[in-house]
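Reopening this one. Same input as before:
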Amino acid sequence: MLYNTLSRTKELFKPLNAEHVGMYVCGPTVYGDPHLGHTRPAITFDLLFRYLKALSYKVRYVRNITDVGHLEHDADEGEDKISKKARLEQLEPMEVAQYYTNRYHTFMDKLGVLPPSIEPHASGHIIEQIELVRRILEAGYAYESNGSIYFDVTKYNSKFHYGKLSGRNLDDVLVGTREIDGQSDKRNSYDFALWKKAQPEHIMRWPSPWSDGFPGWHLECTAMSTKYLGEQFDIHGGGMDLMFPHHECEIAQSCASLGHDSARYWIHNNMITIGGQKMGKSLGNFITLEQLFAGDHPKLEQAYSPMTVRFFILQAHYRSTLDFSNEALKAAEKGYDRLMKGVETLGKLKASESSSVDVGDLRTRCEEAMNDDLSSPMVISALFDWVRIINSIADGKESISAADLEELKRVVNLYVFDILGLSNEKSEGGSSNQLAPLMDMILEVRKSAKANKDWATSDLIRNRLAEIGIRVKDNKDGSMDWEQA
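Same output, byte for byte:
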């Protein structure tokens, strides 16, 4: 089993089925608006989903919605976060969950994140979770205590290795586990809940053989991944903060109930930080996507578009820490604009009889980068190199044949749009798109002035446009391009 990387994706990745890939990714807990931290796993696994499809795999991508069992304070204790919000706002818990699920989908659409093949909800799979608890109990790796069921980590560790994913041993886990109120039902502090007996005030509850209660947080992913992908599937992913304890507990549940781990490859994206600190409401550095897109947060100097944010995420390797700053997002904005202008210039190129450039270089570099653990930064670097070449061709310094031009367009479209998942915001109803008809008319007037050698009018139009932030470029063939500064 290869943990935490897809090194040499195309060469070493061997799906269970030659053509089909099963992928499960831990999705959001829907008790609040999606924030900047949600973008990293969403875009990372969207990139993987897109690339696997580009390699002609048939991918079943399952991304869950956690709408029950994710507790305050600790994975096993406290009040369910959605129940708490429902109680405070005097709403039904499912009303809260549905509202924020809809919000999550809206913002993921803006970021160009494709919907998964299946999006199961924890609350819709209580029967499967109860059955999983029963199987673990029958195997002897769990015990009942006052109506709650806990996983017996010590007994499990005597046969399997609890901590193999995160590289821990049971002594490390014991040292890092704190005693809190409500854990007296457990035999050991590091045992985790499979089923929790609901207190009288708890809103979300279901009947079970042990008590009216609700499933533990870790249980849902094990139950839903095996339901939709089988007892063994290819890829399980999520944020690095889920490696322990969530994913470690998932492995334990699978091994206890099935005798083996279900996932063959585990992939974890690293965190987004602000000023070197992990984002959190308690630190005052928590930025929602709505605030980010509107520029409505004290830490934001301006609004940033969805594609700027997506480009910001993609220009760093998914396993590296990515630190938020206005400077970094402004640099991403410039990089994204530069790439889109290169794509626009590519669409206007005219073919020559022969080529002075090697188009195969771009495809080779992009393939090698994606096959090397999804190295999106190296893909972007290769594309930027080719933006310079595209501009040289447009300036007449290089030449490209008709066949090579079509191949270049295919490769650029494949990696920029299909795999990186970027889109040209200007061509999709932005302000530049609304200006286009007016600019066409203005440039026609300027072109006519130049044809009549009315240089004063030609220069006046160019200068006045520059004053309002629109640059005009005169091409050698007599055509004109424009862009917003």
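So the earlier flakiness isn't reproducible anymore. For the record, The radius of gyration is 27 Å.
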